[in-house]
Amino acid sequence: MRTIKLVVAYDGSCYHGFQKQKDYDTIQSILEEKLALLCGEPVVIAGSGRTDAGVHALAQTVTFKTKGRIPCNNIVRASRSLLPRDIVVVSAAEVPEGFHARFSACWKIYQYRVLCTNTPNPFRMRYTWQQPVPLKLQEMNAAAALLLGTHDFSAFRSSGSVDSSPIKTIYEAGWHQEEAELVFRIAGDGFLYHMVRNIVWSLVQVGLGRRTREDFAAELRAKRCEFLNEPAPAEGLYLEEVCYKPYPER
Amino acid sequence: MRTIKLVVAYDGSCYHGFQKQKDYDTIQSILEEKLALLCGEPVVIAGSGRTDAGVHALAQTVTFKTKGRIPCNNIVRASRSLLPRDIVVVSAAEVPEGFHARFSACWKIYQYRVLCTNTPNPFRMRYTWQQPVPLKLQEMNAAAALLLGTHDFSAFRSSGSVDSSPIKTIYEAGWHQEEAELVFRIAGDGFLYHMVRNIVWSLVQVGLGRRTREDFAAELRAKRCEFLNEPAPAEGLYLEEVCYKPYPER
To answer: Any idea what DSSP says for residue A1?
Structure first.
């Protein structure tokens, strides 16, 4: 039995999320269907984690086991013609038995993109959260800095999930400008259900001047068991990278 | 009767082109349906020209007549909540009676975007033509320069259209790099059916080294009545601007 690791990029716009669901197109169901053709046997993949409907991935990781002998390079090449154009296998590699996309992951990076524009941009509607007014970047970054380190993130968890522990360590969290868009980048050893989108929603309130850094601090410390507002929309969120070595000391 | 001119941006990915068609969502049918709600009466719009299925517009122009009294600013604002997010009214203005989106237009600018990348980019599949190898920009520009001036463009017309005259004047035509993408920009007083996409297909052959500038020159001069190959894919093409004053002398 070989264990294969794929790095997969996808535009999540047209899918009901990563995880397999009856009667719906999901990233997992399509990957399993096409990989089965390549491997000549049924394939069950494990992802590094789920992404919700509409959420994108620049580099999702999946692993699967196969008795098939197809070389990894051929998986990449052949997948191009089998997969729809919004799912791309970026790389494939054989990994040691026991390596698992989810359980072997040490930390992950997500990014969230906000476009501040008075006139909505139809070409970015699937890829950003559009705000009609400018956001205060400095204020958002002052609040985002409070996320660094190890905290109980229960107040930023949406209900409906069964996560093991709400205690997570955040290594990086901050906003920067990329041309017209504001990009929030957050790295951590784990994320609760909707945690990034809920954090973004709250940080954007700070950016709009509706809340202060202190409000954000109080929300983070609040001993609530779930987030009280709507998460920021799925379409702005990207799983950027899944890392399999401990976060480097700086 | 007032005559209103709208500038409209749209992502053409999910539409069967601009022109109204029975049983299909088109830009025209959706605009007419929503404008009728705003104006309180049936509305028939004229576009500056058709765009095919999958083709985008940064600034399509449409005009319509109405007895309704809704102020132009309100059309822009109210259309935000009525229209799907991939069709955006950028501006609205009252224009003199007799002004017509199509017949009053003097020249137009199109752009076509090509992304050269070994690994396909799922996020640009609706917005670029992706090529797995680099294209020779200089060679493409040397060939594109041949388009300038007044020519019979019959050899770059696809069959299935009834255009008045194949003689068109091209004011600008050239490629430039915008980050990872190559952008072809062409300005002219008129364009035949599929003309821009057919020109792009031939220029990309030059960029790939499969044809020379001389081959392109011969194709332009050929007294054919239609293009012999497939047009470049619709998703790379954008109607960039419609101009209502003569092309400025330089």
So the answer is: -
Q: Which residues of B touch A (CB under 8 A)?
A: 9-11, 56, 80, 85-88, 90, 119-123, 125, 127
Burial class of residue B168 in the structure, from the number of CB atoms within 10 Å of its CB (0-12 exposed, 13-18 middle, 19+ buried): buried
Q: Tens digit of pLDDT for each residue in A223-239? A: 777 888 899 999 999 99
pLDDT of residue B82: 96
Instruction: Tell me the per-residue pLDDT of A164-185, one tens digit each, with 9 for 90 and over.
Output: 789 999 999 999 999 999 999 9
Query: What is the ipTM score, two decimals?
Result: 0.91
Helix axes A27-39 and A72-82, enclosed angle (nearest 10): 120
Which CATH number among 1.10.10.10, 3.30.70.580, 3.40.50.10310, 3.40.50.150 corresponds to the domain A2-95? 3.30.70.580
Domain positions in chain B: 2-95, 107-243
Q: Cβ–Cβ of A122/B87 closer than 8 Å? A: yes
Give mean pLDDT, residues B177-188: 96
Q: How far apart are CA B181 and CA B123, in angstroms?
A: 13
- What class does CATH assign to B107-243? alpha beta
Minimum distance, in Å, between the CA of residue B91 and any CA atom of chain A:
9
Q: What count of residues does chain A have?
A: 250
Please give, rounded to a whole number of angstroms, the shortest distance from the CA of B149 to a CA of chain A: 33
